[in-house]
Each structure stands twice: as C-alpha cells, then as structure tokens.
Amino acid sequence: MAPEKEEPNKLTPVPSQEGQFEGVHHTHDAVFGELTEDGPNYRNVGWIGTVALMTKSMIGIGVLSVPISFDTLGIVPGVIILITIASITTWSDYIVGVFKLRHPEVYSIDDAGHLMFGRAGRIIFGTAFVLYWIFVAGSGMLGISISFNAMSSHGACTAIFVAIAAIIGFTLGSIQTLAKISWMAWVGLIGILTAIFMVTIAVAIQDRPFAAPKDAVWVPDYQIVGNPSFTKGITAVSTLVMAYAGTPGFFPIVSEMRDPTKYTRSLLVCQTIVTVTYLVVGCVVYIYCGSYVASPALGSAGPLVKKVSYGFALPGLIVTTLLVIHMPAKYIFVRILQGSRHLATNTLIHWVTWLGCTVSITVIAYVIASSIPVFNDLVSLVGALLGTLMSFQPMGCMWLYDNWSSGKSEKSVKWMLMVGFSGFVVLSGTFLMVAGTYGSVVSIMESYAASGGSAAWSCADNSNS
C-alpha cells in the first residue's frame, strides 16, 4: 500500500499537543517555539525518513563486530543474547515515543531525566548524552580513516585521513534539520548494507577465510557454545548492546517528526531491518570464517573484497559520523537558544551559535580520535558506561514515572507484570553497565601490558585487522 502523502510544511497535531498548532505557515512547537517561513522547519521528517535516520543510527561499525561477538560467545548463545537485547531495546525505544507524546516539551533524554529526578537527572543524562555521541563521533572518524586506508592501500598518513573525516563530518553535520539529512541516511544505509552483504556472500562462496592457513584442508571451526572468561564474555555482550545503542538519538528524531503518532510504525520497521541484518551477517560470516573472522568484519574476505566493500561502506560511515556530530550539537544549540526567537529564525546569533556547536563537537571528537591510546577499548568503555545507561535504565524509569501512581489504586495483572518488567530492564541495564565497564577496563589494562598502547596522531595503517 502506498504511503500516505504528507504535506511538507504541515505539523500534525497529536493528542498531547492539541491547541498548540496555529496553521501551516506559522505554528508553535513545545520544543522549538514559533516555527515560521523565516527559519528552518524543525518539524519536517516523515515516518519513512524517520526509518532511515533510526536505522542508520543503529547500523554502522556495530554490525561489523557482531561476528566477533559470536566467536567469543558461540553462535547459539550469541543469537539468543542478540535477540534478547533486540527485544529489550525495542521496548525501550517504544517507551521513548510514548513518553514524547505524553510530554511534548521533552526534546532529549535529559528532559526526561529532569521530569523524573530533577536537576540532577538533567545534568547526569545531559552530560552522558553529549559525551556518548562525541566518543561515537570520534569512532566514526576512525571508521572513515580505515575506509580511506583500505581503498588507497594506505595512500597517506592515517592522521591526515582522520582530519579529512573530521572536515567532512563538520560540513555535513552542520545541515540544520534532520529532514534535510534523511535522504543521506538512505544513501548511507544502502551503502553499508551493500558492503556487509557483499562480504557475507564472498565468505560463503570462498573455500576458506582469507586469513586461514593455505597449506591444509580447511575445516570450519565455529563454536556452537563458546567458553569465554567472564571478562571476554561480558565485553562481547556489551558489543552487542552497543549495536543497538542508537536509543539516545531517538528523542531528537521523534521531536522533528511531522507526525509523532507514526513513530512506532517507523520503530518496528527499523528494528526488523536491524535485527534481521545482524542475525544474517553475524551467523553467515562467523560460520564460514570461524576463529579467522576479521575485525572489522569487512576484512574477512581478502584484500580485493575489502577494498570494494569499504568503498560501498564509506557513505554509510560518513552519514553515521555526521549524525553523531549533528545530534549533540543540536542538543547544545537547543539548550542555549530555547525560548529565544533565534532558535528557529535565521539570524546572525542563530548561525554563529549553531556553527559554534558543530565545530566544537567536531574538534573535541577529532582530538579524542587522534590522541587517545587504545582507542577501541576506550570507546567500548564509554559505550558500556554511557550507552547502556541511556538505552536501558531510563526507559524502565520512564514507564514507572507515567504509570506508578495510576496503577497503585487498582493493581491489575498487566500493571504488576509491567512493573516487574520495568524493574528488570533497570536492573539488567545496571548489571551490564557495571560488568561491561569492568570488562573494558580489564581489556585496556591488558592492551597496555601487551603493547604499551597505540601512538597519538599515528601515521600507521589502521585498516589491517
């Protein structure tokens, strides 16, 4: 059935926002204030564009680590854990949309934190939100540099490629609205899906993984059930959590939808695409590569496929980087100008503030990407500590915040089950946060003990797995 046609400048009222809309060309939004033709339309993302933005915020470098996680955990536990994480995060993401409809003034996760826990909640969640996306932006810059190195056979110093990635991220991340970015999200999504499925097909038709010994009969060595140490096991689980940790970005995305009531539709399409992709890529690549799977997985099928696949993946890596620069910059921008006419009007103050936010986020992410040793382990640490914190616990608390009082007077079976499930989400997220952080710290210590860490602003080729 053809999607419903949506007028590009019309803001669709939702139950929790009745009476706030004054017309097609001049309207009031609970977050952005007065929206007129004199400024950017911050409420112009359709539900299909929302699918692209959500899916692209999920599928990135994370999908390339799924086969490695399966190698650690074993394919059966890996699949079970991945489906469990998918189910919990789908519920968490759904609660984001429900909470936004009930509280239209909420723009980001720190607003939810403020409603639930006061000023301390705003500070904790706001700081975590910005730091999380900055580190992910740094990881995205490194991903782009890996792609450049792979395609050019290390044609330049890696530090130069990281700088180029930062310039690209700043330029595209400075586009004002998510509606104008959504078409790029489709391009990036198609590119990275093409790359990962190309590698998946390549490893399936080859007689052995590229890294496997060539002088012996190849026998697949994948494990049905792995036997990792606690540290390695919990780190692998944290990696799978990170593959679904786009949740913090869903509040800003739903805030720019034309019709937030269609958020759940977009979410279900997104989670279906993401989970099917992770399962197919993770299972096929791991079964055919076993312990010789590369990290990232695009290197598993040999140099030629690696070059071609990174070429297709490059637009996806660029879009991931621009999105994770745009979202923390937009958050800071809204906080600085909220309540002012400059927020939604193209004034000098508007542009100076907006570009100041995007360049600041870019520069910090670039410095982190270029200067911090054992960067991948550090990103895992920040992901375990901050990504889990924003994808599990707040959503359980959000359901309890909206439903605790109403349910106490009449304790139905459904209410009691949801209280129990919300508590489980909070407790499981806390366990994963603490245990994942511990595993990442141990991994960093082991990396230093083995090699002393990696050099800052290094020219070394970072595309070799």
From TrEMBL:
This is Amino acid transporter transmembrane domain-containing protein. The keyword Membrane applies. GO terms for cellular component: membrane. PANTHER family: AMINO ACID TRANSPORTER (PTHR22950), AMINO ACID TRANSPORTER (EUROFUNG) (PTHR22950:SF683). Pfam families: Aa_trans (PF01490). Belongs to the amino acid/polyamine transporter 2 family. Its main location: membrane. Residues 1-20 are annotated as: Disordered. The lineage of its organism: Eukaryota, Fungi, Dikarya, Ascomycota, Pezizomycotina. One of its GO terms (molecular function) is L-amino acid transmembrane transporter activity. The keyword NAD does not apply. It is a multi-pass membrane protein. It comes from Penicillium salamii. InterPro entries: AA_transpt_TM. Residues 45-440 form the Amino acid transporter transmembrane domain. It comes from the Eukaryota. The chain crosses the membrane at residues 45-66, 73-92, 123-144, 156-175, 181-205, 267-288, 308-327, 348-369, 381-401, 413-438. Keywords: Membrane, Transmembrane, Transmembrane helix. It is found in: Membrane.
